[in-house]
Write a structure and sequence with these properties.
The chain is mainly alpha-helical and 155 residues long. It has 6 helices and 3 strands, in the order βααββαααα. GO terms for molecular function: DNA binding; DNA-binding transcription factor activity; mercury ion binding.
């Protein structure tokens, strides 16, 4: 209702409004993501802004930001000197991290596909090529020296 004054919320009501558990709110307090309110009438009450802050943190997590990064975004939002370019840089950095993780997952997938392809798919475990591959010592990655200049044999 417009014009209705929002009142402070108990931890249970704040959790419900934010779509999280009570323990999440307590965890965020311990991590310094939200302030621990003073006790009033024997229990803590949270201003409506805390619910909005928790929702912001959860949304940041949903799109891949860590809690630390969400805290950095909140600090940027509170900084009157900050610029949209600062937030954009944070998001671009996160994209680069995601791309790196995707590359690693593709390498893992290729390795799994290779061991699965070598498996006959039947027979005793003593001849299981997947288990044998897992028993092998890891190989050192080959070092490509493609970018190094060639040494010329000159007399």
């Amino acid at each position: 209702m417009p014009g209705r004054q929002m009142r402070n919320l108990t931890i249970g009501k704040a959790a419900q409004e934010a779509g999280v558990g009570v323990e999440t709110i307590r965890f965020y307090e311990r991590q310094g993501l939200i302030e621990q309110p003073a006790k009033g009438a024997g229990y803590r009450t949270y201003p409506p802004e805390v619910v909005a802050r928790i929702r912001f943190i959860r949304q940041a997590q949903r799109i891949g930001f860590s809690l630390r990064e969400a805290q950095e975004l909140l600090a940027l939002r509170a900084n009157p000197e900050a610029d949209c370019a600062d937030v954009r840089a944070q998001a671009q950095h996160k994209i680069a991290e995601v791309d790196e993780k995707i590359s690693e997952l593709l390498r893992v997938r290729a390795a799994l596909e290779a061991v699965v392809a070598s498996c006959p798919g039947h027979g005793g475990l003593s001849g299981c090529t997947i288990l044998e591959a897992l028993d092998e010592a890891p190989r050192e990655p080959s070092t490509c020296r493609c970018d190094e200049p060639r040494k010329r044999n000159t007399p």
